[in-house]
Amino acid sequence: MRPKRRNYIVDGLCRKFLVLLLLSVFPAQMCMAFRVRGSRGIAPEEYSQYSSKADYYILELGLFGGGSYYTGDATPHIFRNIRPAYGVSLRYNHTRRWSFVAKAVYSDIRFTYNTLQEEPMPEGETFVPLSLKAKNILVTADIIAEYNFFELARGWVNRSTRPFSPYVFAGLGVSWQKYGPTHVAGYLPFGIGFKWLATPRLGFNFAWQTQLQFNDKLEGVDQLNDFWELNGGNFMKNDLFSTFTLGISVNFATRKKKCNRCD
Length: 263
Prior knowledge:
Blueprint: H1 2-40, E1 57-71, E2 83-93, E3 98-121, E4 124-148, E5 151-152, E6 161-162, E7 164-178, E8 182-197, E9 202-213, E10 240-254
Parallel strand pairs: 5-6
Antiparallel strand pairs: 1-2, 1-10, 2-3, 3-4, 4-7, 7-8, 8-9, 9-10
């Protein structure tokens, strides 16, 4: 009987030791977590392992450049007559997923179109086919909203945080074009892109944007500008202008932390 009683005593001591161990370790961890939360004002998981208290930047100033092409009456295929395009952007990071961007782009479009030219002939005036080249300077400015598929941040913040992310965007813009008479028109910008944060202050991005014009006068040539007004109210028949650019941005203006517990 004594060996059994000894086993009971040993088991009881082991259980008491485990209970005391849990009661001592768990409160210590909770106390440490509350101390970190109280001293910093937010939960520790909101900080990156590469971050300081004030490194979550909400503004980005960037430069970008690349190519552009036009799709319309004179050029019905994409990636034809590619021209250089460059611009400047200002991005406001509302959250790690949502951003709002204001940007301006300078480019031009070139195309060849066929027309008929009236020429005098011995047997009388006649029309002969003629191929002409045209150029149109184009300046655009738009405001777009971007949605990142991952929460963009350097270092680990949560399971969905990445230093890179694909994104989609859409917005509204206005274009100024010069070929003959100056013309101003609105457009609908939309597209896809990819962002990468090289450091907390330096980022790179690639964007492919298409602009659906609100009219069919991008060429600046009367016979190509919906001369017979056949488009009607179908704006899907209007001209398209697209850009594909690679950009670099510098981050600044840190977000103020909200203090949930201030001593």
